[in-house]
Every structure is written in structure tokens, then in C-alpha cells.
Amino acid sequence: MSIVLKVYNSLTRKKEVFKPLEDGKVKMYVCGPTVYNYIHIGNARPAIAFDTVRRYLEYLGYDVLYVSNFTDVDDRLINASKERGESVIEIAERFIRAYKEDVGALNVQAADIHPRATETMDEIIDFIKKLVDKGFAYESGGDVYFRTKHFKGYGKLSHQSIDELKVGARIDVGEQKEDPLDFTLWKQAKPGEIKWESPWGEGRPGWHIECSAMVEKYLGNTIDIHAGGQDLSFPHHENEIAQSESLHDETMANYWLHNGYIRINNEKMSKSIGNVVLVHDLIKQYDPNVIRFFIQSVHYRHPINFSDELLKGAEQSFDRLRTTYNNLQHRLEVSADLLEETLTTQYQEKLSELKTRFVQEMDDDFNTANAISVLFDAAKEANKVLQAENSSRLLLTHFIELFDELTGVLGFELKQEVLLDKEIEDLIAKREEARKQRDFALADSIRDELKLKGIILEDTPQGIRWKRAVSNDENE
Questions:
Q1: How far apart are CA 25 and CA 57, in angstroms?
Q2: d(CA 42, CA 409)
Q3: 415 is in an annotated binding site
Q4: Cβ of 1: how many Cβ atoms within 10 Å?
Q5: DSSP per-residue codes, 431-464
Q6: Residue 86 assigned to a binding site
Q7: Among 132, 164, 167, 168, residue whose Cα is nearest residue 150
Q8: 3-state helix, strand, coil in the chain (%, to 5)
């Protein structure tokens, strides 16, 4: 179905035709969170963006092996352990569960493999040892460092030269590097810290080496796609390339994908400013489908500005799509006057055109923003069908199937499975009886009462149609 899938490669800074290492299969690694706290909306963006990339690749028929790690040991976890009086492992376990709950609510599919640094320690130590043996790394004062200048391609991902990178590079107190640009592979344990035995004494790995070891263990020396947030491009991904390609003498990844930043009310998200938005809190205030829709309304490489006002606008837009979808289902379920005719050539072509346009937009570096525009065009066509005096049962079904197919790629759900509780059912029945008795004042009063309960009623020739309000405050 795909015309030609093109992917923007951060390494070459251009769109390239996607060609996997092995026909029909894709090996994909996405850098996951450091699990010392609840994730914020910035952490959720790569989870959503690259879940969508995975979904689209699978939609095109690829068998995707998707690996996304948890960093469950680093300075932030150790500091949190000291502050809270809990072990690093206990904190990591709690926030891995929280992460899975939060992104699960956003309809992010679990990775095929979720490796953890603490469960990959033998491979990490072996990886470092091989780098030392090849002369790319050295032990100094109980720490092990990577010789950055020994890797000739250093800076190729961030498009910086060694001379440019030297500016601002320094050796911190306690470090015994040969060169300020060298980075840590293994850290000597401090008293009371979590630690592992190694050829260089007790300690723990540096951050960058963890991903190189996990990629090698679960996906091999060379993979198709390596992805993560824009903030990881340098130094994390740059250092991964240096480590992996120095050891294997092979390309680490053929395509590097990076999502853009999220700003909060046009400001950088920062603890010091106090504007960090936790997903854990946000999904209590908004339908997670709306949050995912909002994130995907902007191309994954572009920055997003987040605010309550913008999210409420996205909520209203999403509700228009959901209303059309629910109306299609309602018409199909309750209308007795539907035609049983076959699909006309006109609508066969229209449905095919909409699907083709959707694929073309997604083929253009996974352009979800334009793909969503196609959904709204589909809604316009569906509303014409709904407004027609007579509609085809088959046509309504095909529009529902189109929405299901395309929103399945984007990972949000339009279907609204809501059961009215007994009180609301009784109120609707009471209102219908009032209308029959021509007590329109009572009928209007009940409608207003239901509105306060978040239920909007619509009187149609086919009967009463209802939907949930976008928010409890209809004046917003």
C-alpha cells in the first residue's frame, strides 16, 4: 500500500527512502526513561511518537522487533534512594510500574523487550572490557573512560567537530581523564552506593554504555532504527555511536530519529520554574485519547507548546471526530430505513482516496499532523452521508471501518464505551414521557439536569441520541 516511506535521518539531516536490513523486518531501539519519578509530558512524547512509528511500520506489513530500555541505576536514582530511604531497586520497580500505567493509558503498546541496566550488567562489563582491550578505553583511579579522540567519527550525529566540542569541555573534580572530552564507562562505587564487581573494582556503569550493551544483546551490532528525544542526540546518542562502532567496526544504526521538545506555556519545562506537567496527573484531568491526539497534531520532529487552553482546543477537535464516529454507529444500530445496496463507485473511490492520502502523509516521515487532517476530511464526507435522507448500511459500515483502521495506526480510539447509570436512564425515560404528555417545561428541565451530569441529548428523526460533553463546564 505504501508508495515510498521516507524517514528523516538525523545522521544525514535529510529524508531518505526507508530500506530495512532484512526484507519485511525492522529492528528498532528507543531510549526509555530513567525511572526515579513519574514521567512528565516531555517523556510521554517519544513514547507516543515512536509507538506510532512502530504501528505504522506494522500497518505496512513489517515485522517489528521493538526494544525500549529502562535506566534503573544512575545518579538520580542514587540521590532519590538517599532522600527517600529506599533502595535503588525499590524506587526503580515502583516507577517502572508507574511508567507502564501512564503510557498504557495513552495507548502506548508495551515494547517486545524492556531491558534494564541492572539485568544487563554482565554484558555491560564485557562490552567495556573489550573496549579496553582494543585501546578505546582505559582505567584510571577506579573509573573507566572512553578515549573520544580515538574514534574518528565522533561528532557526526550532532554535526560538531572535535575542535568545537573542546569548547566548554572540562575535567571535573575527582576525575582522572586523559582528555576533557573522554566520557565515563564505569564509575567507582562511593560508600553506601549500589555496586557490582568488575575487573576495575566495585562500581556501576556510566549511562551511555548501558544502551550500547542492550542494543548489542537484543538486536545485534547494526539495527535499522535508533530513536529518542532531541535532547539525547548529544551526548548520549553520540557516545553510543562511538562505543558501538569502535567495538564492532560496523554502523550502529542506519536511521536515527529524534522527536522535538515540549514547551509549557512557551517556556522550557523545568523543575526550577515549577512548570513540570506529570502524565500521572494529566490523565486524571483529560481523556488520554485527547492527550495522544494533541501530541500527534504536531509533526514529531517539531516543537510543541503545551497549555491547558491548547489542550482544551484539542479536546474540542477530537470530540468532533468522536461525535461523527458515534453518530455513524448510532445510525447503523437504530435506523430501520437503511438501504441494503452495494457500495457505489463514487464512494468506493472516495474511501480509497482518503486511505491513500493518509498513507501518503504517513509515508512522508510519519506526518501525523497531516494524517489527522485526512481524518477530518473523512468526517466531512461521513457527515454528508449521515445527513442524507437514506443511507446505505454498507456505506456506514465502511466509514466506521475506515476510522477504525486509520485511528488504529495513530493509536487513539474514537469509540466511546459508556454505560448510562440507572439514574440517567430513568431521567431519559422520564423526559420522553414528559414530551409525550406535552409537558415541555419538564422535558427541558430534565435535559438541563442531564447536561449538568455531562450528558448531551440530541433529538433526531431516528430517536434520542446522546453523547458525553467535552467538559463539565460548557461555557469554557
A1: 9
A2: 22
A3: no
A4: 10
A5: HHHHHHTT-HHHHHHHHHHHHHTTEEEEEETTEE
A6: no
A7: 132
A8: 50, 15, 35
Residue that the C-alpha cell 529506599 belongs to: 86
What's the grid cell of residue 405?
Answer: 483502521
Residue 417 has pLDDT above 60, yes or no: no
Single out the residue of 39, 52, 173 nearest to residue 107, CA to CA.
Answer: 52
Q: Looking at residues 295-320, what average pLDDT do you find?
A: 96
ω into 235 cis (within 30 of 0): yes
225-271 pLDDT, tens per residue?
999 999 999 999 999 999 999 999 999 999 999 999 999 999 999 88
312 known member of a binding site:
no
User: Do strands 143-146 and 137-140 pair parallel, antiparallel, or not at all (unpaired)?
Assistant: antiparallel
Ligand-binding annotation for 240, yes or no, is yes
- Based on its alpha-carbon atoms, the radius of gyration of the chain, rounded to whole angstroms, reads 27
Residue 387 has a pLDDT of: 84
Check: CB of residue 178 under 8 Å from CB of residue 145: yes
206-223 residue pLDDT tens: 999 999 999 999 999 999
**Is 31 annotated as a binding-site member?**
yes
Q: What pairs with residue 459 in β-bridges?
A: 464
Enclosing H/E stretch for 187? strand 183-188
